[in-house]
Design goal:
alpha/beta; 5-stranded mixed β-sheet; 4-stranded mixed β-sheet; 19 helices; 13 strands
Length: 433
């Protein structure tokens, strides 16, 4: 089975063959008569699931009187979390449960000393087969290295979508019931919105990662990485990649697109001053709650005559506990987070798609899907999934940062996309050698 079909099943299949169970019924033993205290590191800001994290942690702590979970938010998304994690581990202060981005999977395996979840499951008399019983093999692959090592458990799953402001579409004389399906239509509609309303038409998320940019590059036939002679090399210096990136830069140059911080771009959209924003379905709940108009999500656009490719975004749960009591408590917390009840709260409170079996076939989350067309738009792109590119080796973080830096170079118009990507690919390849 090829990678696209495998990853399609990883999400579409993750939501079938229901298993109605709930982990976390067996609490960790008291350590010296005191609560076992563990830390949960996450990237959920207040506008991106932070309130739901607090709700889940509070609920778990109430249900497990012998365990106390403390949540810690890490800014700068997965890159920031990974940098903080390395610093903490260097000082001997490991967190216990961590949201690790899929793009850092190979880096985490190569550079971080984690606790094997399979070993923790084997020590659990009640849930020895928790992974196999509740997740399809293809779903588990989202948190497996290239050689098949299971280093964590898939938790949050997302795809990029195109959110539109139907009110601005109407003001510009466009049909909000027919949002752009191709990138040429996005560019055309963004320009019309700018001309007719004075507001910019488009913004693509600019988190400290390259997830959304990978989607547009690979949807135009390019690739982020390639294998040559058994080595991983940069592949984003192709004409296809440059063309996709240049399209974004051209919109910024003519004023129909924004090059801004996420806070600025998202706020412009929510306040009704931006026509379209391309970002994760994980922002759905916040957008729907915060916008002063009806938020509409459309599938990620394609290039004319080319296949859509959207990387599976989000994160998986890893354990870094070393103390046996903390390991046991961390395992209970992970099982709780992956339960139907907790996943329904997490997916409803954010927009992420749950990885556990059966949640689109029965239960509370199926009702959410049936009542929300924005979720349905995201689910429609499941057959188009590819793996989020992950740089291996000790220089993976530096390579990722180079790609983040070149985004600013291109979108600010300092260099043409083709030139900037070629220069960056050469630097990345030096790091990967």
């Amino acid at each position: 089975m090829n990678l696209r079909k495998t990853l399609a099943l990883a999400l579409a299949g993750a939501l079938c063959l229901g298993v109605m169970g709930c982990g976390g019924s067996q609490t960790a033993q008291k350590s010296s008569g005191k609560k076992v205290q563990i830390e949960y590191w996450h990237v959920a800001s207040e506008s991106f699931g932070g309130a739901t994290v607090k709700e889940l942690v509070d609920d778990f702590n109430k249900k497990h009187p012998d365990i106390e979970v403390t949540a810690k938010y890490n800014p700068d998304m997965y890159k920031g979390l990974t940098q903080n994690l390395q610093a903490a581990m260097a000082s001997g202060k490991n967190p216990d449960v961590v949201q690790m981005g899929y793009s850092f999977l190979n880096y985490a395996n190569d550079n971080l000393k984690y606790t094997d979840l399979n070993d923790l499951a084997k020590q659990d008399d009640k849930d020895k087969n928790f992974l196999k019983d509740n997740f399809l093999p293809n779903v588990l692959q989202l948190a497996q290295t290239d050689d098949g090592k299971q280093i964590g458990l898939p938790y949050s799953v997302s795809v990029p979508v195109l959110y539109i402001n139907p009110d601005l579409f109407k003001q510009a004389g466009l049909d909000p019931d027919n949002p752009p399906k191709t990138w040429s239509e996005v560019q055309k509609d963004a320009k019309i919105i700018k001309e007719k309303t004075g507001n910019p038409g488009f913004f693509m998320q600019e988190y400290a990662d390259n997830w959304a940019q990978q989607a547009i590059i690979e949807s135009n036939g390019g690739h982020m990485l390639k294998k040559e002679g058994g080595k991983t090399l940069a592949a984003f210096d192709s004409p296809e990649a440059a063309q996709a990136y240049q399209l974004l830069a051209d919109m910024v140059k003519d004023g129909s697109g924004l090059h801004a911080t996420n806070e600025e771009g998202f706020q412009a959209y929510l306040s009704g001053k931006l026509g379209m924003v391309c970002t994760t379905i994980g922002k759905r709940a916040n957008f729907e709650k915060s916008a002063n108009f009806k938020v509409v999500a459309a599938p990620f656009p394609v290039f004319d005559g080319k296949a859509r490719k959207v990387p599976a975004g989000g994160n998986f749960l890893m354990c870094f506990s070393k103390d046996p009591a903390k390991q046991k408590a961390a395992w209970e917390f992970i099982k709780y987070l992956e339960s139907n009840e907790a996943l329904t709260k997490w997916s409803t409170g954010t927009g992420y798609l749950p990885p556990r079996k059966g949640m689109d076939k029965e239960g509370a989350f199926k009702k959410v899907i049936d009542s929300n067309k924005n979720i349905q738009a995201a689910l429609s792109t499941m057959p188009d999934l590819v793996k989020w590119a992950s740089f291996p080796g000790q220089n993976g973080l530096k390579a990722e940062q180079l790609l983040i830096d070149v985004r600013d170079v291109i979108l600010s118009g300092k260099e043409p996309a083709a030139q900037a990507l070629q220069e960056t690919a050469a630097k990345v390849n030096e790091l990967l050698q």
